[in-house]
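User: Here's a chain of 589 residues. Predict its fold as tokens.
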Amino acid sequence: MAVHDRVGMAMRRLSIIDLAGGAQPIYNEDRSVWVVFNGEIYNYRELRRELESAGHVFRTNSDTEVIVHAYEELGPDFPNALNGMFAFSLHDARRRKLVLARDHIGIKPLYYFFNGSVMVWGSEIKAILATGLVPRRLNLDGLAQFLSWEYIPGRGSLFQSVHKLLPAEMMELNLATFSWKRRSFWDVPVESHPTAPRTCMEWEEELDGRIRESVRRQLISDVPLGAFLSGGVDSSLVVAAMGAPKTFSIGFDDPSYNELKWARRVAEHLGVDHLDAIIEPNVRELFWELIYYMDDPIGDFSIFPTYLVSKHARRKVTVALSGDGGDEVFGGYETYLAEQRVKDYRHVPGFMRGMILEPLLRSIRPRPEKKGLINKAKRFLEGLEQPEGLGHARWRIFMDDSLLQALFLPEVIGGLTEPPEGHVVDLFSRAGARDPVNRCLYVDLKSYLVDNCLVKVDRMSMAVSLEARVPLLDKDLVELGFQIPGDLKVSKGRTKVILKRVAARHIPRECVYRPKEGFSIPIKNWLKKELKPLMQELLDPLALLGEGVFKVDTVERLKREHLSGQANHSHVLWSLMVFQAWRRKWLEG
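Assistant: Prediction complete.
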């Protein structure tokens, strides 16, 4: 830790590059500029050569040091020159300026509290709370968003006064006047329309080369490095481009949630050193362990397998490459297909939909397996009942307005200032003149990916001191991905069309063209068995009554319908449980 001119910055470092000389803070030549940094800069060697040729003197071999010299040399948008994942704070003592910045995609988080006279910031909310300066007041809008989407979007958090920097955003604080401003230094470019349009094969060739380049760029490390391997398209492509890494996967004893056979098939084909395991976790004990890392909570079930596979990998490596981001850049989710199928469904005569199909689907109980025709059909119908303006994202929402009204007490409803779906509507308007598929991808990249998926990966990997890298979210690769026409990504009932064509060059076709499963756990079944006591404890009627947020009878109905198998309320019940545990641990301390 160091303190200069009333600015204190500290870092607890997971050493990856320059183990001996990379201790932070790191300074420029005259110690007038210093930085604390979380992440990795993958093009630091190229930048270092350019900066040294411009006269800058380096004292370490770390990637961190390029930040201070790039700040001096490249001007106010200097973060745009960095290729990597980063969140940093930089103090310019000569100009009396503090600069906070977050990477292009939002892979690394940065939270802050500012009350006009004091600013506190950090990579985790718990670091900010530790100062004792932050009032622990619940953000009701954030709670409604959390229960609706399983994450808190944009700048918000569940604390009224704790905020996030957005991806590709900088914040500058004038230390003389304590005035501040935020600005963006990058955004995903709108796809171009070249004079000579490329063929699918030309896009495929360029994409294949760019993926391999991105992966190679992210192999820099002074510590052991490996990869997660699910056997799906994204992680398999990453592993195929790595050469011969160690790879890791886990599975559960429920066959519909176990993909180990596919991971083994890919590992055998690529000839990599693969380690997998069947996990039977003590989920109740593990839940409370993970809540410590959920000071900015998400309701995504897959925190469990993400933590467990990270722990599994950490026994052998310190860095693991992941396939995250492929779905949001190249169109991997079934929500995109659901949006395209709406027109077909509207062609079914109205009386048949309203009097036969929909009542029948509502009457059928959900199935215990992960997906299946019945579960998918019921979910499709649930999405159709959401506002059409949400586009594909209506199949992501788990609490509609009617449930919101039924769940919250009137005084809580009266305290809400914005609709939970507002961020999605805003992102669609910001998406610009893109084709329909790329508009959906832009929305997911800026919301679901950054505020759910990347939070999950960062929290669960760093919990075991493992650095997770995401080469499919390389800035240059993302820019290329959004130039590719949407009909080469999602078309005629198929997802990730062009990415699968690339993958089929390197891994068995049966692994590429199998149904998408996703990385999850049988939470809907666990709530009826292993997690039932925990659910009853956290959603105890007397406790809820005393807290004054939720209507007890609605929570009891949701529990009753789920336990009886009448409905699948696992997403809302789980988010309620996570919130109640977060409330105990972080709001009430």
